Amino acid sequence: MPADLFTNFAWIFWAALILIFVIVEVVTVDFTFLMIAVGSLGGLLSGLLGAPLWLQILIAGVLSVVLLFVVRPALKRALSRGSDQTPTNVAALVGIGGTVTTEFVDGQGHARLANGETWTAKLSRLADDRPLEVGDTVVVTAIDGATALVVPAERTTE
């Protein structure tokens, strides 16, 4: 009797699954749960058309897997095609040049970066041991909190 009850009201099970997957998708925005929700919709529709429960589950599973491996990658590519890949905030500072504004003592000093900001700067472990003096050019290799890790810029001899 409980199996008959579940079979007769399987559409409620499918509707609940679809609702849960859509809610999770709204939170994650990764299109994974959206594909599973559409697969569950296939299970719901096959159940409404009179398919047995095992076939509903099979249709939902196969449809979900096909959507995950075929539609989802294409959808993600299409949506990311027009997105701006320009680095922002701290990521935009890596690779930017600057000028030493205070003499480096124990590998630490200040540098005015090309964007006009003055940062506390520390010599990166990648840097050679030559001292940095006021006016020397540096390049930011990383940001550590509020400190720019810098290396001396290559000098060109003319």
Structural write-up:
It is built from 4 helices and 5 strands, in the order ααααβββββ. It is α+β, with helices and mostly antiparallel strands and 158 residues long. It folds into 2 domains: 2-80, no CATH class; 89-152, Beta Barrel (OB fold (Dihydrolipoamide Acetyltransferase, E2P)), CATH 2.40.50. It has a 5-stranded mixed β-barrel with strand order 1-2-3-5-4. Helix 2 runs antiparallel to helix 3 (32-48) and helix 3 packs antiparallel against helix 4. It is rod-shaped. The model has no long low-confidence stretch (mean pLDDT 86).
| Strand segment tally | 5
As a percent range, the share of helical residues equals: 40-55%
Share in β-strands: 15-25%
Largest sheet: 5 strands, mixed, barrel
What order do the helices and strands follow? Answer: HHHHEEEEE
What is the SS-derived class?
alpha+beta
Secondary structure tally, helices: 4
Count of separate structural domains: 2
The parts where pLDDT drops under 50 for at least 5 residues are none
Could you list some keywords that capture this structure?
OB fold (Dihydrolipoamide Acetyltransferase, E2P); 2 domains; 158 residues
Topology:
Blueprint: H1 2-8, H2 10-28, H3 32-48, H4 53-80, E1 97-105, E2 108-113, E3 118-123, E4 137-144, E5 147-152
Parallel strand pairs: 3-5
Antiparallel strand pairs: 1-2, 1-4, 2-3, 4-5
Helix pairs in contact: 2-3, 3-4
Give a quick summary of the entry.
The chain has 158 residues and is of the alpha+beta class.
